[in-house]
Design a protein that fits this description.
heterodimer, A: about 400 residues, Alpha-Beta Plaits, five-stranded antiparallel beta sheet, 18 strands, about 25% strand, globular, B: about 475 residues, alpha+beta, 4 domains, 17 helices
Chain lengths: ~400, ~475
């Protein structure tokens, strides 16, 4: 039977963890393990768990600090992402890394939380230029597997005092502690946005165009390629500008001239431009049909065209698109067998990593959801897990069977 | 000064010196092993020169395989190891100990690959920070973090300390600009962390290794992000009548949604010192100077600067002086980046590195002044105003032991002040030995224990740079 606990504050949470640690010590193998839940919108990410107690961070909520002039915001882990983004927007600011909303691909309801964003190191299209969630996370508070309250980092953006446990928490999927508060450095929201659209490019040309754009001084903040049939008849290569209007008006033609050999681009402005990047961010183009498996594959951009070709050859039903200038490939495969795991990872040949983002529990239990790590790295990861959570209480096995 | 204790040298290691050197000589070519006392003395300290220890031996490997062999040997024989780049650490991060083998990466200084389409470069750990930018600048690219020592300091050291620089406000610090490293673990195992692809799943070992001060392993190679250079860059000097006005102008600029690439602050003593050295044309009739740099096309820079000037005028700016040529720009930055060296011409100094929330600037500057006066010393302030990373330079006479002790005490008081107002002990220089015994002012016991347990996952036997970062008492 699953018990649900909703601690009202950090101390209460620490007490629950200490209690669970005591039970494990007394009755070996009782399995009083803890499943951490934010809004539950990303519950399908990671290996399926079988834990006795679910800890909800729903009551650990609220923005605790926002200093616009210092470009910093802190919020308790269970704070809805929406609240954080609205608080920032009121002062003309934003989370730079543009976190993805997973509700479209999982069909979940509820509210994504800021703690969940950190736990899964969730970033969107702007990541390719400004960095990921982990790059903007400057402070955390969490409860470790001993039931101790631990702070790392803080509210200042330059801090090298001691080991950086902040980065470790980003993307640890809650296995290294239960986050209670997170702090980010933020950026001003751009005054305007526009998208440069090239149609009909091959993947090789698209990646070349995106690399040229991202290697230009014109500060492109998004670069994606949607192959033919992905929301439009012709392939679309999209480059985003975000700045004050006069700057965009100068940079758009300047970049178009540099990219002349790829054709004459169209310009998309305002709402239409914003919508297209939300669709890319949230992977809406591959959300349906919901019974397909979804992969998120990272590689260096110059490998993307060849890999896309290999993936299509390996799986006849494969549909895909590119973000991050070709550094990120979203792939839908039939959710049968291993959902393409062995073929995909063979095609990657150690030159990147593939994460099985969406698949039925039975597949995610049988196939490594995250890219398998070489033995010495896996051993290090297991020792790091033990250093935070010696009894293996928190989200055990969520990432790998050993962590 | 002898205030900061070192761990007692391991007698069993000292006793086996000849045996250990014989073993090391089988692992690297003769030219890569330094054993004579005179030559070892060249490695006895770094830029934190008040402390020095002559190491047992120095190895200067040429390959990752050699680093691995040396580490495996030292691990087998329980010999401490101190990694070293260019020895520019301001916190004693590279100072050895008598029972330690120094592994210097200076011979591993090649750029192995530059890849413009993927915007990355693969380099050896001993390459200098500026050499990376020099290798790619003709093609319109640069490596972003720019510590003032960038001409000498190595990328391995930068990663070890998670170095910053003047331009992190826009481009972030080292951890935001590294894609992967080759790390040799304490037992000689070689692992690759991160890589050419972004955001590897699994624990962010890359983020953990950045700033780990040589406690987790020795880096031999790195994959770094290279970025396209802006069309142009222009620093502008803003002179204010008081530090308070300058501080408020900084907050107002950021509050208005403008993020310049750099916002550097100097107080009157620092202006005098730097101008005398660099002849940069800094205004001499002001109490505080901001160097604000913007990037873009000429029209874009004009537009952004117009907004900044308007805000500065609202905050009582007395002088505004734009750079009008590449030479002027170079002189303006030369003055700022030479601040430490120029100060060294007029006095000995210790350089603090605390970071504070920028809203606390006026309060902290007042308190620094009081603290330093209390000890009867002088201070020059240069710092990164946009991110609150302070560098008070406390001036003293190194040949006067009493004054040296006072300088250290004043420095400690300043760092405690930084923590009190919500900041931290070190923003970019690292803990090293300098701030090791202040760690308990920033962290509670379970927090420090948690860090040490993570450290133990890499080096349970405390062989890697063991005198640094964590107080010697109460280690886990």
């Amino acid at each position: 039977m699953i018990t649900l606990r909703r601690p009202r504050n950090e101390d209460e949470l620490a007490g629950i963890v200490r209690e669970a640690a005591g039970i494990v010590r007394e009755v070996e193998g009782l399995g009083a393990s803890l499943n951490v839940q934010g809004g539950g919108t990303r519950a399908g990410l990671g290996r399926p768990g079988n834990n006795a107690v679910t800890i909800s961070t729903a009551d650990l909520s609220g923005v605790t600090l926002h200093e616009p002039a210092e470009m910093v915001i802190s919020a308790r882990a269970g704070t809805p992402l929406r609240v954080v983004e609205e608080t920032l927007a009121e002062k003309g600011q934003m989370l730079p890394f543009e976190p993805m909303d997973h509700r479209a691909i999982y069909g979940t309801n509820g509210e994504p939380t800021i703690g969940g964003v950190v736990a899964a190191n969730v970033s969107g299209p702007r990541r390719v230029v400004v960095g990921a969630c982990r790059d903007h996370l400057i402070g955390v508070r969490f409860v470790n597997g001993r039931g101790e309250i631990i702070r790392s980092g803080g509210r200042v953006m330059k801090n090298v005092t001691g080991l950086d446990l902040v980065k470790l928490q980003a993307g640890a999927h809650g296995t290294l502690g239960i986050l209670t508060e997170v702090t980010f450095k933020v950026l001003p929201r751009p005054e305007a946005t526009a998208t440069m659209l090239f149609e009909g490019l091959s993947e090789a040309d698209a990646v070349a165009a995106m690399s040229a754009a991202l290697g230009s001084p014109f500060e492109v903040t998004g670069a994606a390629h949607l192959p033919a049939g992905m929301g439009a008849e012709r392939a679309r290569t999209l480059l985003r500008f975000e700045n004050f209007p006069a700057s965009i008006d100068y940079r758009f033609p300047a970049l178009a001239e540099r990219l002349q050999r790829f054709g004459t681009p169209k310009r998309i402005d305002k709402a239409e431009s914003e919508q297209i990047w939300v669709a890319i961010r949230d992977c809406r183009l591959l959300a349906a049909p919901r019974d397909t498996a979804l992969w998120r594959i990272s590689m260096k951009p110059s490998h993307a065209p060849g890999l896309a070709q290999a993936l299509r050859e390996a799986s006849s039903g494969a549909r895909l698109f590119l973000d991050w200038g070709g550094g990120l490939l979203w792939l839908a495969t039939p959710a049968s067998g291993d959902a393409g795991a062995s073929a995909i990872r063979a095609a990657l040949g150690g030159k990147g990593h593939a994460t099985l983002v969406r698949a039925p529990d039975s597949i995610r239990a049988a196939v490594p959801v995250f890219q398998p790590e070489p033995a010495p790295v896996a051993a290090l990861s297991a020792r790091i897990k033990a250093s935070f959570d010696p009894a293996g209480l928190i989200n055990p096995g969520r990432m790998h069977a050993s962590c | 000064m002898t205030a900061i204790p070192f761990p007692e040298p391991r007698a069993d290691v000292l006793a086996r010196r000849d045996f250990l050197i014989a073993g090391l000589s089988g692992l690297v070519p003769p030219a890569c092993l330094v054993t004579s006392e005179d030559e070892r003395r060249a490695f006895e300290t770094d830029a934190f020169t008040a402390y020095r220890r002559v190491p047992l031996a120095v190895v200067l490997p040429e390959t990752t395989a050699e680093v691995s062999a040396v580490l495996a040997f030292c691990h087998q024989h329980r010999v401490p190891v101190v990694p070293r780049g260019a020895g520019t650490s301001l916190c004693g991060g590279a100072i050895p100990q008598e029972d330690a083998v120094v592994i210097g990466l200076s011979k591993m200084s090649r750029i192995l690959e530059v890849n413009y389409p993927d915007r990355l470069a693969r380099v050896q750990a001993g390459v200098t920070n500026l050499a990376i930018t020099h290798a790619v600048s003709a093609d319109g690219f640069f490596y972003a973090p720019d510590p003032s020592s960038q001409l000498a300091c190595t990328i391995g050291g930068n990663i070890g300390m998670n170095s910053g620089g003047a331009h992190c406000l826009k481009y972030g610090v080292t951890t935001n600009n590294i894609l992967g490293v080759t790390l040799v673990l304490v037992d000689g195992t070689v692992i690759e962390i991160g890589g050419e692809a972004m955001d590897a799943p699994g624990y962010d070992l890359l983020g953990l290794v950045c700033g780990s001060e040589g406690q987790l392993g020795i880096m031999t190679e790195a994959i770094v992000r290279i970025l396209p250079s802006a069309e142009g860059a222009r620093p502008v000097l803003f002179g204010f009548g008081t530090s308070e006005e300058a501080g408020k102008a900084v907050a107002a600029i950021i509050g208005a949604g403008i993020v310049p690439v750099a916002m550097e602050f100097m107080d009157k003593p620092a202006i005098d010192i730097c101008e005398a050295f660099a002849k940069a044309g800094y205004p001499m009739d002001v109490e505080a100077l901001l160097i604000i740099e913007v990037e873009g096309s000429d029209a874009e820079m004009d537009a952004t600067l117009a907004k900044i000037v308007e805000i500065a005028r609202k905050h009582g700016v007395k002088r505004v002086k734009e750079s009008r040529s590449a030479m002027e720009t170079a002189a303006i930055w030369k003055g700022r980046k030479s601040a430490f060296g120029a100060t060294g011409r007029i006095a000995d100094y210790i350089c603090m590195d605390g970071t504070i929330p920028t809203g606390q600037l006026p309060h902290v500057l007042r308190r620094i002044d009081e603290i330093v006066k209390h000890y009867g010393l002088r201070v020059a302030n240069v710092f990164h105003a946009g991110d609150g990373n302070l560098h008070p330079l406390i001036l003293y006479n190194v040949n006067d032991p009493a004054e040296a002790m006072k300088a250290e005490e004043a420095g400690n008081d300043i760092l405690k002040l930084c923590v009190e107002v919500g900041g931290c002990l070190t923003g970019e220089h690292g803990v090293g030995i300098e701030k090791r015994d202040l760690m308990r002012h920033q962290f509670k016991p379970p927090e420090l224990d948690q860090q040490m347990r993570v450290r133990a996952a890499f080096d349970a036997g405390w062989l890697l740079n063991p005198a640094k970062v964590f107080p010697l008492e109460g280690r886990v």
